[in-house]
Request: fold
Amino acid sequence: MSGGLGSRADALARLRDPAGRWDVLVIGGGITGAGILREAARRGLRAALIEGNDFASGTSSRSSKMVHGGLRYMAQGAFTMTRKAVKERERLLREAPELVTRMPVAFTLRKGKFPGRRVFGALIGVYDRMAGINDHRFLSNRELSDRNPGVDTSQLAGAYFYTDALTDDARLVLCVLEAAVADGATAVNYARAIEPLRSDGRVTGVSVAADGETFEVAANVVVNATGAWADELRAGIAGERRMRPLRGSHLIVPHERLPVSDAVTFFHPDDGRPVYAYEWLGVTVIGTTDLDFEGDLSGEPAITEGEVEYLLAAAANQFGSAAIGRDDVISTMSGVRPVVDSGKDKDPSKETREEAIWVDEGLVTVTGGKLTTFRPIAMATLKAVEPLLGLEAPLPLDERPVFDTPPSRERADRAQPIDGTPYSWADLRAAVDSEQVEHLDDLLLRRTRIGNLLPGGGDAIATEALQLCRQRLGWGDERVAAERSRYERIVLDHYSLPQ
Reply:
């Protein structure tokens, strides 16, 4: 791992300094904002980022964890987006091999159904050529079963094996932020943008609320990288709302109950939408749904009863002998995708995942896009920002590796492993010391994924985790009790089956 995010108190002091003015102020601490901060700071710009909640607390800790080209988008004709994404996938596999890992995929082919072996083989051949690799082959039903015990092959005509990639999305965000901070950027969580500041018809900063105070932050350019929440900041200036928030939900079950070796991909029996089951951090994830999100964007999303039934039905259809049921579910995960509304009443799964960039009176809004393509999205955003900076010389927009040094989770002290997880107490101590942990959920749901991997959000280790925060963050009895209550409510309401 890199050197961390620095002191939050120091970062807040720099942000509050009325004598300072930022070249670029990024609003939004997900992967898009982190990528923009990274690319701005390394080019010598005075850059800061604020996030109203915790870093990666929105879409960027609740995605499907896949760094992929979007094979189904290519099937819909989005070849340019797919080509860009697979090239970025290969870049990240090279630059961050411990953070982004090759993921085997088995795409099942149903007897007499589209696509057949020949069509899918041609499609995946193009997909691999775009990435500059050749890593696909046909699997017989026997090979598919050997690799993925419990898969029902009675209606299958084999499967196609190919590879994409997998990551811990929240950890990816943190590593990109840490790289930006190492290059001189400032990043602060739990600092909420209230409204834009304007002068002579142009946005010149934002008012910010943090730690019970409100103050103004001046910037030459403000970048709205709040994803699904982009309309909240932009609508008052642009006079329009363009986002179509879509919810995607997942079930997490013990890997021994569904011991897949591949990301087994299959079509849901009810609506024909692709669903998958894959191993992640020692558990099996079943996902995803794709529905219009009609809840309150100011709160956290949660899986619905209908989504639970939908995903269990998918598992029953493809893994009937496993008999996966509600009692097997360790946790759930639900996120809101930042999709730009086409205005054509499309099926949610057919809306474009391309990014959009708008400039309104000096406010640069970037939204949409995919986790995989955060770097080119950041570069496109910098191109939109450059004319607004008033620079004497052009901004160098050459391509550079995302990470100067590959991120790593290896630590010298791994003597206290936490059962059922890939984490040690050394990981938790390092996160508390250097990654702006403000709440217990920051530590157990994003700095680590213990809350996703252990029953009850990891309640068996919550007391010890709270003691760690007491010792290293100075939490007293009242704070410890409040954090426990807060965490239990978050887990119950947003990471568990519906009550």
Notes: Residues 105-166+245-339 form a domain with the D-Amino Acid Oxidase; Chain A, domain 2 fold (CATH 3.30.9.10).
